[in-house]
Amino acid sequence: MAGYYRTGRTTAALAACLGVTALLAGCASNDATAPQATAPADAGAKTDGGTVPAGQPDVNGDGKVVIGVLSPGDINDKGYYQSFVDTAEAFATSKGWTIIKRGSVNTSEALNAARALCQQKVDMVALGASELRDAIPASEEPVCGNTAWYVPSSDNIQQTPKIVLSTDEADQSMLAAGYAAGLLMKDKGETKAGFVTGPEVDFTTTAAKAFKAGIRLVVPEATLTTTYSGDLNDSAKAKEATQAQISQGVKVIYPYLGGATDASAELANANGVATLTPGTDRCASTKPTFDISVLFSPGDYFKAALEEFAAAKLQLGTEKVWKLGVDPFPTVKLCNGTPEQNKQLETFIADVGSGKIDPKAEVQRLGS
Fold first, then answer.
1. Counting Cβ atoms within 10 Å, is residue 31 exposed (0-12), middle (13-18) or buried (19+)?
2. Measured between alpha carbons, how far is residue 170 from residues 18, 95, 144, 324, 338 in Å?
3. Which residues neighbour 240 within 8 Å (Cβ) at sequence distance 6 or greater?
4. What pLDDT score does 15 carry?
5. From which residue to which does the signal peptide run (predicted)?
6. Helices 339-354 and 170-188 sit at what angle, rounded to 10 degrees?
7. E strands in the chain
C-alpha cells in the first residue's frame, strides 16, 4: 500500500455525546484544563520517516490501550463522520482496546476537549477532521506527553514531531465522481446535474467545481446547479434545495452533505433522480438507494493508521497521502453500472493514478 489517511472535508453542528458499550468509555468533558505535568514520553525508535514511540500501542505504559476520538460532526450521520468512529470501535473491539469518543465538538472547544482526553490517559488522540486543528497544540503539552496523534490534514496544518498527518487531494475523487455521473447521464441523454451542500466555503466550492469538470469530460454541454443550504445536517434545508433542483429538471443530484444526506437522497429517489454518496460505500443501501458510491471515508484511512499502531509501526512526525488509482482509497464505484460503464470508469481512475489525467488541470479547464 503506497499511502494512507485523508483530509477533513466537512463541518457539522449537531450535538452528540453518545453512550458506551462494554468496551467503550464515556464521553469526555470539554471543560477540563491541563493537570499537573507528567513525564514526557520516551522518544522511542527513530526511523527515516519519523519516530515510533516506545511501547506502542501502549504508549503511556499503563497496561492498556485507549484511543480517544474527537469529531467536529455528527457521529451518527451514516456517512463521513460516523465511518471514522465505527472504524475505531470495530478495530478496538478486535484488539480488546477501549475507545473514548465525542462528536459535534466545536472548533472553539477543540483544545480543551483534547486535554480532557489526555487526562483520561489515552494512548492516541484521533481527530475526525481537520476542522479540529486547534487541538493540536495540546500534543506538545505535558498533559498529552504520552500520546500519539492522528490528524486528518489540509494544506494549512503544519507537520510536528508528535502527529501523524493524513491527506488526499479532493480534486481526484470529486473529478472521478463527476466522471461516473457523466457516464450515467450520457447513456440517458441527460445534461442537467445538481450539487446540494452546506456552507459556501473552500471545501464545498472546490468539490463542486471538480464534480462539474468530471461530468463535462463525458457530457461537454452539461450544466451543474449548485445550492449552498448553509448547513450540512439540516434535513429540511437539504430537502428544500433538492426539490428546487428537481423542479429545474436536474436528473443527477450529489447530496454532498453530512446528517442531511439521506433526506436529500430519499427525495431524489422518489423523483427518479440518480444520487451519489459523500464518502462511504452505500451501494447495498435500500432506503435511500444510491447510484454511485464515492469513497473517501476517513474511516478507511484511519483503519490503516490503527493497523500500524497495533503493529508498533506508526511513525509520528510523518504524513501519508492516499492517491486515486494508486491506493485502494479514494475511489468511485457505479452501484449498478453496465460492463462498459464500469470499464470506462476503471480506465479513468487508472489514468489519474498513472498521471495521464491531471485532475487539477481538468478542474481548471472545465470546472468554472
1. exposed
2. 30, 32, 31, 10, 26
3. 229
4. 28
5. 1-25
6. 150
7. 45-46, 51-52, 66-70, 98-102, 124-127, 148-152, 163-167, 192-197, 223-228, 252-256, 274-279, 292-295, 318-321, 331-334
**Which residues make beta-bridge pairs with 334?**
292
Q: Considering the chain, what is the average pLDDT of its residues?
A: 86
Query: Residue 252's beta-bridge partner residues?
Result: 193, 274
What backbone torsions phi and psi does residue 260 show, to the nearest 5 degrees? -90, 5
If you search the block for the grid coordinates 441523454, which residue do you land on? 189
Residue position matching grid coordinates 486528518: 152
Find the angle CA(134)-CA(144)-CA(72) to the nearest 5 degrees.
35
Helix (H, G, I), strand (E, B) or coil at 313: coil
Q: What are phi and psi of 70, to 5 degrees?
A: -120, 130
- When pLDDT is averaged across residues 33-50 and rounded to a whole number, the result is 40
- What's the CATH architecture for 45-168+298-321? 3-Layer(aba) Sandwich (3.40)
DSSP secondary structure, 174-212, as one string: HHHHHHHHHHHHHHHT--EEEEEESS-SHHHHHHHHHHH
CATH superfamily, domain at 170-295+338-366: Response regulator (3.40.50.2300)
